[in-house]
Amino acid sequence: MNRWQNLWRFIPLFGLMMLLLTGCGSDTISALKPRGPVARDQLFLMQLSLGIMVIVVLVVFAIYIYVLIRFRKKKGDKDIIPKQVEGSHTLEIIWTVIPIILLLILAVPTVSYTVNLSANHIENKEAIHVKVTAHQFWWQFDYPKLGIATAQDLVIPVNKKIALEITSADVIHSFWVPSLAGKQDTNVGMTNIMYLEADEAEVFLGKCAELCGDSHALMDFKVVSKSEADFNAWVEDMKTPVAIPAEAKAGEQVFKDNCLSCHAVSADGLGFGPNLNGFAKREMIAGVMPRGAENDRNLHAWIVNPQEVKPDTQMPPVPLQEQQVNDLIKYLNALK
């Protein structure tokens, strides 16, 4: 008994810890803080369904409590059977019609928003068209009308529809940017269609929402929304050939000899691995490790043993000498 009494003392502590943990995380990965029209519509549907459920629960409990009090057996009451209501047409109609009305209230906007989300925005000439391909364990973004291909960072202009054609290269994944739109499965041999739109210039976190292998939890990406002017400048920058400095020439040769068979570095190149055009401007290495001049050790760790960073990744360890690895890092940091 004393042991159970001691355990009860920890409940307030657990409650306090849960309250504190609710404040952890980023605002850009919360479906409860929408930053675009699609996410706002989906939050409305969540609030609507939750509101209906709360009303139903309150009504049921109110009736339950009323019956407990109104028809409880009092001292001196005889054992009698209450009046039976089986077969009452009035009650049958009430508890049939009310659920139908509640379902219609929920179904009409749900169907409307779902049809709009999956509508053929691909034909919208004003939208930015992006083909999204999921891989174990990274994301490929191809802008066919702009002649650009990139990976891990989906760059978009603000206040503009982004029409997405989503598929998978290997297994089932799921594309999810909580602050901008709900998740959409990516299936091999199929193309799903959706759109998203950002209200402001921000970096939004995206994830794979379908268990897809050992490194599913590390299959992250980012949606970088920019002003239209900054987006157009990014497009031109991606199309401009990179001038490799003299100190990175040795690394360029290492790349050509060992990496070029999988990784493209041109504006629209697609390969077995991620396109590394503009790699030096990305925030993360392999989607999970911070990059930058002070974080070359992360890039080094990824090149030497990618399986240690992302188990079951398709990138094999590259048999390079230490000097070759350092030269390759200089080259990759020059891909701006």
From TrEMBL:
<dbReference type="GO" id="GO:0005886">
    <property type="term" value="C:plasma membrane"/>
</dbReference>
<dbReference type="InterPro" id="IPR036257">
    <property type="entry name" value="Cyt_c_oxidase_su2_TM_sf"/>
</dbReference>
<dbReference type="GO" id="GO:0042773">
    <property type="term" value="P:ATP synthesis coupled electron transport"/>
</dbReference>
<keyword id="KW-0479">Metal-binding</keyword>
<keyword id="KW-1278">Translocase</keyword>
<keyword id="KW-1133">Transmembrane helix</keyword>
<dbReference type="GO" id="GO:0020037">
    <property type="term" value="F:heme binding"/>
</dbReference>
<keyword id="KW-0472">Membrane</keyword>
<keyword id="KW-0349">Heme</keyword>
<keyword id="KW-0408">Iron</keyword>
<keyword id="KW-0249">Electron transport</keyword>
<dbReference type="Pfam" id="PF02790">
    <property type="entry name" value="COX2_TM"/>
</dbReference>
<keyword id="KW-0679">Respiratory chain</keyword>
<dbReference type="InterPro" id="IPR014222">
    <property type="entry name" value="Cyt_c_oxidase_su2"/>
</dbReference>
<dbReference type="GO" id="GO:0005507">
    <property type="term" value="F:copper ion binding"/>
</dbReference>
<dbReference type="InterPro" id="IPR002429">
    <property type="entry name" value="CcO_II-like_C"/>
</dbReference>
<dbReference type="InterPro" id="IPR011759">
    <property type="entry name" value="Cyt_c_oxidase_su2_TM_dom"/>
</dbReference>
<dbReference type="InterPro" id="IPR008972">
    <property type="entry name" value="Cupredoxin"/>
</dbReference>
<feature type="domain" description="Cytochrome oxidase subunit II copper A binding">
    <location>
        <begin position="125"/>
        <end position="237"/>
    </location>
</feature>
<keyword id="KW-0812">Transmembrane</keyword>
<keyword id="KW-0186">Copper</keyword>
<dbReference type="Pfam" id="PF00116">
    <property type="entry name" value="COX2"/>
</dbReference>
<dbReference type="Pfam" id="PF00034">
    <property type="entry name" value="Cytochrom_C"/>
</dbReference>
<comment type="similarity">
    <text>Belongs to the cytochrome c oxidase subunit 2 family.</text>
</comment>
<feature type="transmembrane region" description="Helical">
    <location>
        <begin position="50"/>
        <end position="69"/>
    </location>
</feature>
<keyword id="KW-0813">Transport</keyword>
<comment type="function">
    <text>Subunits I and II form the functional core of the enzyme complex. Electrons originating in cytochrome c are transferred via heme a and Cu(A) to the binuclear center formed by heme a3 and Cu(B).</text>
</comment>
<dbReference type="InterPro" id="IPR001505">
    <property type="entry name" value="Copper_CuA"/>
</dbReference>
<dbReference type="InterPro" id="IPR045187">
    <property type="entry name" value="CcO_II"/>
</dbReference>
<dbReference type="InterPro" id="IPR009056">
    <property type="entry name" value="Cyt_c-like_dom"/>
</dbReference>
<feature type="domain" description="Cytochrome c">
    <location>
        <begin position="246"/>
        <end position="336"/>
    </location>
</feature>
<feature type="transmembrane region" description="Helical">
    <location>
        <begin position="90"/>
        <end position="115"/>
    </location>
</feature>
<protein>
    <recommendedName>
        <fullName>Cytochrome c oxidase subunit 2</fullName>
        <ecNumber>7.1.1.9</ecNumber>
    </recommendedName>
</protein>
<dbReference type="InterPro" id="IPR034236">
    <property type="entry name" value="CuRO_CcO_Caa3_II"/>
</dbReference>
<dbReference type="GO" id="GO:0016491">
    <property type="term" value="F:oxidoreductase activity"/>
</dbReference>
<dbReference type="GO" id="GO:0004129">
    <property type="term" value="F:cytochrome-c oxidase activity"/>
</dbReference>
<feature type="domain" description="Cytochrome oxidase subunit II transmembrane region profile">
    <location>
        <begin position="23"/>
        <end position="121"/>
    </location>
</feature>
